[in-house]
Each structure stands twice: as C-alpha cells, then as structure tokens.
Design a protein that fits this description.
CATH superfamily of the largest domain: Transcription elongation factor, GreA/GreB, C-terminal domain
Radius of gyration: 21 Å
Number of helices: 6
Helix content: 25-40%
Strand order of the largest sheet: 5-4-3-7-6
Oligomer: single chain
C-alpha cells in the first residue's frame, strides 16, 4: 500500500489551519465523544481523584497522581473537540447536486479509480476528523484526496508521493451516504467501570418527547 494511504491521525492532532469540512455523521461522532467526556468520564475521574486525595499523602498516592494526569488529558481532548465542533462546516454527501457538482469529485464524493496496473479501488473523501482506512475514508487534504479533487469519470490524475508520482484513472464519481464509525465508550473508561447512566443524545430526547 502506498504511503499516501497509510497516514493515521493522532487523537489530539492540532486543528489544521483550513476549513473543517465534515459530514453529518462525522460531526455527530465528535459531539458524542465530547458529551461522553464532559458528562460521564470527567465526573467519574474527578470522583476518583477526590477519593484518592482523602487517603493521605498525595505525593506518593498513585491513584491521585494518575487521576490528575487523566483529568489533564480529558480537559485537553475536550478543548480540542470543542474547537473542531465550533469550526465545523457540514457537507452532506446525500444533498442534491446539479451540473459539475454532481459529476466531479468534491468533498463527500465516493470515487472509484484504477492505477497503471489496472487495480481499482474505491475511496470516500471526508474530513480530517473522519479518516478511517478500514472503511477507505480518506481526508480531502491528503495527497490522494487532493489528486482526486475536481476530477470526473475518465480523467487521469497524478498522485504526488514522497517517493515519486503515480498516474491514476478515475472510473466513477458518485455521491451517497458515507457511514462513519460511531463513537463508542472505551471499555476501560472510568465511567463504564462505575456504571454511570448514559445521558440521552438530542435525537433520543426528541424521539422520547413524541412517544
């Protein structure tokens, strides 16, 4: 697999200085993680820190030291997610398009292409917070995303790589729902260990109201 396909973002990677384009599903995932950290994980860790602090010398208290370090990590992640959510510009791949917007590859497009050897591949162009190589979701600012951008079926594009270039032929451009992996609570989280109730999402609250 080429290097252009293998970059994995770090959990707290700083926000890029470009627009934060994101799909609706991707934004939902950021909001779900933000809600989990703010309303469940942070309160649970804070409770552990308070308990550890009551046990005596804090300088030699491993539970206290770990809890404080974990709180700093959580607060950093919350700040990061807050900025990403506030800067989000949602683009729905399923929205109606006409003209070149429907036939050329832009953000949210699913593209089928082939390399010089005739091997084809399908990728979906998503935001930097939605990269998922297992689902073939690539960032719109990645080398491959940039190469495919504004291309149409039948076009030849050049993929710029650290070791050289590769010629690709675009076979198909389509727009459809992009299934983003939803946020799931980490199995080892403090909130899960304490069995704290999970707050309903806004969509769940709306559903409950009309029942």
């Amino acid at each position: 697999m080429r290097k252009g396909f293998t970059r994995k973002p770090q959990p707290d990677e700083p926000a890029t200085p470009v627009k934060n384009y994101i799909t609706p599903s991707g934004l939902d995932r950021l909001k779900d993680e933000h809600r989990f950290l703010l309303t469940r994980e942070r309160p649970a860790v804070t409770e552990v820190v308070a308990w550890a602090a009551s046990n005596g010398d804090r300088s030699e208290n491993a539970d206290y030291q770990y809890g404080k370090r974990r709180l700093r990590q959580i607060d950093g992640r919350i700040r990061f997610l807050t900025k990403r959510i506030e800067a989000a510009e949602v683009v729905d791949p399923e929205a109606r398009r006409s003209g070149q917007a429907a036939t050329k590859a832009f953000f949210g497009a699913t593209v089928r292409y082939a390399n010089a050897a005739g091997v084809s591949r399908v990728v979906s162009i998503v935001g930097t917070d939605e990269i998922d190589l297992n689902r073939n979701h690539i960032s719109w600012v990645s080398p491959l995303g940039r190469a495919l951008m504004k291309s149409a079926a039948g076009d030849s594009v050049v993929l710029q790589l650290p070791g050289g270039t590769e010629s690709l032929t675009v076979l198909e451009v389509r727009y459809e729902r992009i299934a983003v992996e939803p946020f799931r609570e980490p199995p080892g989280s403090e909130a899960s260990a304490k069995g704290l109730p999970r707050p309903r999402s806004p969509d769940e609250e709306e559903t409950k109201r009309y029942r």
